[in-house]
Amino acid sequence: MRFALIWSEAASGLRRNLSMVVSVILVTFISLTFVGAAILMQMQIGQMKGYWYDRAQVAVYMCTATDSSTTCTGQDASTQQINAVKAELASPALAKFIKKSTFENHDQVFADFKKQFKNNPVVDYVTPDLLNQTFWINLKDPSQSNVIVQSLSSMSGVQSVTDQRQYLDQIFSILNAASITAIAIAVVMLVAAALLIATTIRLSAFSRRRELGIMRLVGASNRFIQTPFVLEGVFAAVVGSVLAGLATVGIVKFFVQGYLQASVPFTSFVGVNDALTVVPILLVAGIGVAAVASNIAISRYLRV
């Protein structure tokens, strides 16, 4: 009976402040959607790091006739220089770090170039001899790429040795910046939601100030008076949190899995199961923000 009375008071407050409740729901929904997106982005970055770092290669670019670096003499890398690099890769000092290595000559590199820049006019101006013959090296432990770089960089006929992980680090730093931006926006929106919840509770308490006075006169405890107002804020936040959870799952299912996975099939993406693990976090965050904001708002009002 006591709970029924408390809930009826909360329902009455929700009806009286319907427009404010809808505002709380929308702000909570938007802010927690940003939170969910930020969490999923961090999950995605973690998956992509594991996927791409294991596949990152070290590229050994051989000299072309147009190179003027210290290890090149303005001539294309000779057969002897290419064989010297092959021998170095097969040596006991380096072989223990290498999982696999392949060599592409001018024609093979040019074929890859035409596939990569298909329908791009630049293909018409590039000839095979302008492209570096290249060794592609997969390491057993990609973090040990410096061994290959230091061993081959100074060899005659080698233009440069590049660890592809440096490009991945740049991409992941951009993704991390986007994730941090999403978190910052989410924090601002959560603060706005908390302030809106507090304002809604104060307005609701003010509209029922006579009822509250009577309840205090007949001996109602502060907790009994506060609970309906807290339930109002929590109810609105729960609805917003559920909508944010549905939006998060929908984004993963229809955009990430439905579109990105089909458009970019050569990488790993977060799945619906990952999104489902985020939903409880959003619910807890929404309920926590609403409960704290409601308690602070009504407690301050009752002290007046």
UniProtKB/TrEMBL annotation:
Keyword vocabulary terms for this entry: Cell cycle, Cell division, Cell membrane, Membrane, Transmembrane, Transmembrane helix
Topology with respect to the bilayer: Multi-pass membrane protein
Domain of life the protein comes from: Bacteria
Pfam families in UniProt: FtsX, FtsX_ECD
Gene source species: Gryllotalpicola reticulitermitis
Lineage, opening ranks: Bacteria, Bacillati, Actinomycetota, Actinomycetes, Micrococcales
Subunit structure: Forms a membrane-associated complex with FtsE.
Protein name: Cell division protein FtsX
Stretches that traverse the bilayer: 21-45, 177-201, 229-255, 275-298
NCBIfam families: FtsX_actino
Domain FtsX extracellular: 57-161
Presence of keyword Cell membrane: yes
UniProt xrefs under Gene3D superfamilies: 3.30.70.3040
Biological function: Part of the ABC transporter FtsEX involved in cellular division.
Domain ABC3 transporter permease C-terminal: 184-302
Chief place of localization: membrane
Family: Belongs to the ABC-4 integral membrane protein family. FtsX subfamily.
Cellular localisation: Cell membrane
InterPro entries: ABC3_permease_C, FtsX, FtsX_actino, FtsX_ECD
Gene (name only): ftsX
